[in-house]
Design goal:
Layout: H1 2-44
Amino acid sequence: MGTFFILLACSAVAFTIGIGVGGLFTVLRIDRHNDEALKAESEAQ
């Protein structure tokens, strides 16, 4: 019974970390895309 809860806790932590890292990369990708768009706009003006 104890090992089941340990496995459950480990998978929950791994899932949370995976979501956090995925979200972080998504935000960084969006920021980089916005920076490129801003550069293109300023060059066009």
